[in-house]
Amino acid sequence: MLLKLILFLVIGLVSGTVGTIVGLGGGIITVPALLFLASRFSEVEHITPQIAVGTSLMLVIITALSSTLSYARQKRVDFSSGWSLFLGSGPGAILGAWLTRYFTGGLFFIIFGVLMISIALLLTFGDRLKVGRVKWSVRREFTDAEGNIYRYGYHRTIALTGGFGVGLLSGLFGIGGGALLVPLMVLLFRFPPHVATATSMFVIFLSSITGSITHLFQGNIEWMAVLLIAPGAWVGGKLGAWISRKMSSTALMWALKLAIAVVAIRMIVEGLS
């Protein structure tokens, strides 16, 4: 029992820390971890892909709230842009959560694995993509805690459409959606990276609430796992925000990409077997 308790706490701490640093939300670690534990321990063998996603999304709320509060104190969150993106991601998360009922175990493993590999590739090569500048319908001027002024903007229709897609994946796979939202903000709308990461966590917090409510009504949340993982997720959210401000996350990013690829391949093999 002590070993399982430690495992749950470590899952929360790692997913919260890593997810906050890169704006992922942590679900990309939580979902595979829960499915792995379900295959090893009889007490949690009832955790299906749908329950893993619903439980993960509930935990993403905790991680995202913790990191958003920390980022807000650092004056890195553009709340106005965040609310605009949530107008798309909120409904998308509801639809994604509802669609999980149609996934079988093997199909879920395969699609999730492919998505994880895609995210790893996006994290690796996203900054090399040559994306044409989007015409802004909304212009933003943001001043951070150091007094630096940034000017950027976004197109309302593209923001709503992109936000909807991010929310859909969030509700469907419980990953938070930040791995797609941050590149969208940086590559298309020219958000400063550190503002994009922080604002992404705020959007993830809001959309995870709507997705979790849908999963709650479908009975897709394992509350014991939430209670055991939540403390680590909360601490990880604050730790990740602190690390992202104090030191370079380059090495951690490469470790994350490697971990994503390894887990993705394992899940695809599991789905095909």
UniProtKB/TrEMBL annotation:
Organism: Kroppenstedtia guangzhouensis
Keyword presence, Phosphoprotein: no
Protein name: Probable membrane transporter protein
Family annotation (InterPro entries): TM_pro_TauE-like, TSUP/Inactive_protease-like
Family (UniProt): Belongs to the 4-toluene sulfonate uptake permease (TSUP) (TC 2.A.102) family.
Membrane topology: Multi-pass membrane protein
Annotated Pfam families: TauE
Top-level division of the source organism's lineage: Bacteria
PANTHER family: MEMBRANE TRANSPORTER PROTEIN MJ0441-RELATED, MEMBRANE TRANSPORTER PROTEIN YJNA-RELATED
Gene: yunE
Transmembrane segments: 6-39, 51-71, 83-100, 107-126, 164-188, 195-217, 223-244, 251-269
Keywords tagged on the record: Cell membrane, Membrane, Transmembrane, Transmembrane helix
Subcellular location per the Swiss-Prot or TrEMBL entry: Cell membrane; Membrane
